[in-house]
From TrEMBL:
Family per record: Belongs to the PanB family.
Active site, renumbered: 179
EC code(s) of this entry: 2.1.2.11
Protein name as it appears in the record: 3-methyl-2-oxobutanoate hydroxymethyltransferase
Keywords per UniProt: Coenzyme A biosynthesis, Cytoplasm, Magnesium, Metal-binding, Methyltransferase, Transferase
Protein species of origin: Halogeometricum borinquense
Positions contributing to Mg(2+) binding: 42, 81, 113
């Protein structure tokens, strides 16, 4: 089983592989492929739940998907992504919501979209035994404020991200996701920290990489330019489902080998 310590110790040595997963089947495949960390991302709002952003995703939805991923993955570290407003409003509710992911859903850690409001909370969660992965740069829960544009593009913003990264490391975060920031900023943050950075749209100098599984599989109808497709599962699904429909409509399915006859039931009618 991959532990938080294993991930932490990979900083600066072996690249960390992280992928999102939202169900037991996908988690099983990713686990078999040797992925280190499975993130039950609130990106499930866009990929699986049909929302047009991550904002409507609930604690119950993440908890249910986290439990499925935990059941499907024996070796990978499972990280539950805390949805919009589930943390940061008040400390007791934040701790209760994060605690649910570990106690009820079987997560090994939680990820918080981070900012100045999550530094103390990170420290408190870590004190209580809930490992925290921080997340800076583009944080899609702030879409109303920032859109989905690249962050950290000015010197001030770069300093702010570096400063917050250091504060979250001091607060006890075991890893830091850096999303959609310039590669040279991500490289400097990675250099400045002893905990691993895991990049998405943040260049090749991070300690690890994360992608959304639907993008990797080629299942998404839209993928961001910084992602890479390793399959075309959407096309394969369309081919298979269309072939099934045509087979039913033409009488080709079910064939004799798909049917079971019990002789003594002949002549009932
Ligand atoms: O929700 C998610 O999938 C994420 C990753 C993009 C890091 O936060």
């Amino acid at each position: 089983m991959t532990s938080v310590r294993d991930v932490r110790e990979k900083a600066g040595t072996t690249p960390i592989t992280m992928l999102t997963a939202y169900d037991a089947t996908t988690a099983g495949v990713a686990n078999e492929a040797g992925i280190d960390v499975l993130l039950v991302g609130d990106s499930m709002g866009n990929t699986d739940l049909g929302y047009d952003s991550t904002l409507p995703v609930t604690v119950d939805e993440v908890a249910s998907r986290t439990a499925a991923v935990s059941r499907g993955a024996d070796d990978a570290l499972v990280v539950a992504d805390m949805p919009f407003l589930s943390v940061g409003v008040d400390e007791a509710t934040s701790i209760e919501n994060c605690g649910r992911m570990v106690k009820e859903a079987g997560a090994d850690a939680v990820k918080l979209e981070s900012g100045s409001h999550t530094v103390e909370l990170t420290e408190r969660l870590v004190q209580l035994g809930i490992p925290v992965m921080a997340h800076l740069g583009l944080t899609p829960q702030r879409v109303k404020e920032t859109g989905y544009t690249q962050q950290g593009t000015t010197r001030d913003e770069g300093h702010e991200i570096l400063d917050l990264a250091r504060k979250h490391e001091e607060a006890g975060a075991f890893a830091l996701v850096l999303e959609h920031i310039p590669a040279n900023l991500a490289a400097q943050v990675t250099d400045a920290l002893s905990i691993p950075t895991i990049g998405i749209g943040a260049g090749s100098d991070c300690d690890g990489q994360v992608l959304v599984v639907d993008d990797v599989l080629g299942l998404s109808s839209y993928s961001p330019p910084f992602s890479k497709q390793y399959g075309n599962v959407r096309e394969q699904m369309l081919d298979a489902v269309s072939a099934y429909r045509e087979d039913v409509e033409s009488g080709g399915f079910p064939a004799d080998e798909h049917s079971h006859v019990v002789d003594e039931l002949d002549d009932l009618y």
